[in-house]
Amino acid sequence: MAKPTRARLPTSEPLKMAPELEELIGYNLKRAYVVVQKDYRAALGDGGLSPRTFAALSLAVAYPNLTQSNLARMLGIERSGLVAIIDELERDGLLKRTTVPGDRRVQALVPLEAGIAAHRATLAKVKAHEDKLLEDLSDVEKETLIFLLRKIRRHETES
Amino acid sequence: MAKPTRARLPTSEPLKMAPELEELIGYNLKRAYVVVQKDYRAALGDGGLSPRTFAALSLAVAYPNLTQSNLARMLGIERSGLVAIIDELERDGLLKRTTVPGDRRVQALVPLEAGIAAHRATLAKVKAHEDKLLEDLSDVEKETLIFLLRKIRRHETES
DNA sequence: TATTGTTATACTCTATAACTATA
DNA sequence: TATAGTTATAGAGTATAACAATA
Predict the structure, then answer these.
(1) Cβ of residue B118 lies below 7 Å from strand C
(2) How far is the CA of B81 from the C1' of D3 (A)?
(3) Domain A43-153: which CATH class?
(4) What is the CATH number that goes with domain B31-38+48-134?
């Protein structure tokens, strides 16, 4: 049976980390992601688009008449999970589902003027939040980080 | 009203990305995190410890007699959320809650032999999964990535 | 008054499976 | 048979608020 070998860490003591955990890419990725995500929410507030809704809108604006299935693929999520996101965007008047002549199964996504404006405005806020949060990273460091993250993203499942 | 300006993206066409999305750190962080997290689960299987449970065990092993409140702080989660994680670890015989003489409020976490062994075995599996998944990153690139992620992590809320 | 562990509760994000209407 | 959109459902993961015991 394992015996306690050290005294309990008092609350006042500065927080230590598990050394082997700190060397793992996955752990650092998760923790860093939480930092950025929390700051995003704080910066955009309650009325703002959530990260995933903003991502969906960005792609819908960049590729008008996109299919929901294609958008889900681009986002790396299931078709079923996209429904609520599109519901929200349509409810807010940012885009609309339209039927496509020639294939009555699909619902093409058409960005509306309000959606294009919301996208532009939100993008500016997101950029401002990242610039502020990451101001202690140089431009080269930010480029390097994105380059390395994209290298990991090459393993995204293509399904 | 916005008019469709391009033809619908056919399923066969290679997936495009929204350029401005691809330049955001947060978006790339999220997508890369999903890649690593999915590969972790695939590598460790159904019986394996989840990332958060492994992280909790790692810290409990590194700091015997740790308090639940301190552990929650280290993990960056709420005390309440840690309860289920410790329940799981205790149920699996990997650690035990023990009362501390001098403060009967706290439940010190004592790693058991099985817990130390499970930690060692899981760490080996996690390292193997990361080495395999990230084999296209050089050692310098991996070090750089961890360095940059830690720079972001400096903004972790100290609560 | 403040803190520790706990419970209850709810919300976000995501996945799986099954359905319908089309193709 | 296969695909697009949808619904129902469930499971992580996390947060907030409150509580009892203790400091």
Answers:
(1) no
(2) 41
(3) mainly alpha
(4) 1.10.10.10
